[in-house]
Amino acid sequence: MVYLLGKSRCTANQGGANLGETHKALVLKLKADENCTWTIERPENRSIRIIISHTQLDPNGRCESENIKVFDGSSTDGPLLGKVCSKNDFVPVFESSSNSLTFQIVTDRTNIQRSVFIFYYFFSPGTSVPNCGGYLDTLEGSFTSPNYPKPHPELAYCVWHIQVEKGYKIKLNFKEIFLEVDENCRFDFIALYDGPSTTSGLLKQVCGRGQPTFESSSDSLTVVLSTDYANSYRGFSASYTSIYTEDVNTTSLSCASDKMRVIISKSYLQSLNYNEDNLQLNDPACRPSVTNVIEFSIPLHECGTIKKIEDHTISYTNKIAFTESPVSAVITRQKHIQIVVTCEMEYNSTVEIMYITEDDIIQNQSVLGKYNTSMALYESNSFENLVHSPYLVDLNQTLFVQVSLHTSDPGLVVFLDTCRASPTSDFSSPTYDLINSGYALM
């Protein structure tokens, strides 16, 4: 239920109404010098989500004298969840942790008309809509609204966090947006934030139909889909790519557990009278992506990559060849150029080696990296219920451990060398070897 608490200064529409619904949209018209407070009470085992999707407050008002405050509880004495002002750069969304939520709107003495659109609904914590949000950490990818291209679910709130490697920014392209049309996108909308969270700065709030494109200023982007209880349409389909932003004088190489990545400066190629059409790997079918730089993403077991095992080292090597003569009106002695890239994988590190041959001139570059491995503990051999670290166990209790190496090379095998247990979280003495040099100790 929703109640308007008694205040001496409140002329807002719906004042004093007992709304009672499990979800409700409030279109509030406010004047100068208002002070209105609403309280929403939820049923047991439900939470309250409140979305303030559109505000039209005094554009010149000070936040201290004109604002919307949201409290976790049945009165303004409860914990403050947040404050909304006219200059806020986000779409405010708040959730209760108690059985009630209170919001208060205060306006200053400026004689203008204000309007606020607030939507609230109850939801069950711990339940989720399939394909509703998630984390995307590859350099390119795609995602859709739940059920796409069928109508999106009602009362959904989905958040996608896109995080790419340092040195890149994100270009997001909506292949389709089909949401409820509204001039102010109050009902169903997509909110895009220029950073890792919904407080990073709003790029835009969109709805209706369209195919817009957005670009982040850094290596992270957040996408939110919010829907109400009516007029469900197809939703959206989106894809993203990464644009390299760091300065590259000639070339750079980085190695991961599943691929090598080579960045080549366009100006470097132009200085040699070449372009990206002249480049090819050992497998000519593997082509680079071209943005402000030329980028080869080379799988460790494809594109002609050569794998070599020596002692305790595994190396992966490929070659970028310049396949055609430079196009130039001036006849010069042709330079025969090759870029040889190698990733050397050892027990606990990765060595990245690249050299460029120009008429027997060799330039070397190398940096260090790490294997991309993960380790998880489970309660049983079904490996379903993940246990968070630190894992506290009793004597003689069976442990179920899963160790993964994230790589596209099918020829690699994970070997668990050492596993230790300790009664203290900092692993100070005493410690007990469960596995040592690959042997289980009883």
Automatic annotation (TrEMBL):
It is found in: Zymogen granule membrane. The keyword Repeat applies. Residues 254-442 form the ZP domain. It is a single-pass type I membrane protein. The keyword Signal applies. Its main location: membrane. InterPro entries: CUB_dom, Sperma_CUB_dom_sf, ZP-C, ZP-C_dom, ZP-N, ZP_dom. SUPFAM superfamilies: Spermadhesin, CUB domain. SMART domains: CUB, ZP. Residues 10-124, 132-243 form the CUB domain. This is CUB and zona pellucida-like domain-containing protein 1. It comes from Cricetulus griseus (Chinese hamster).
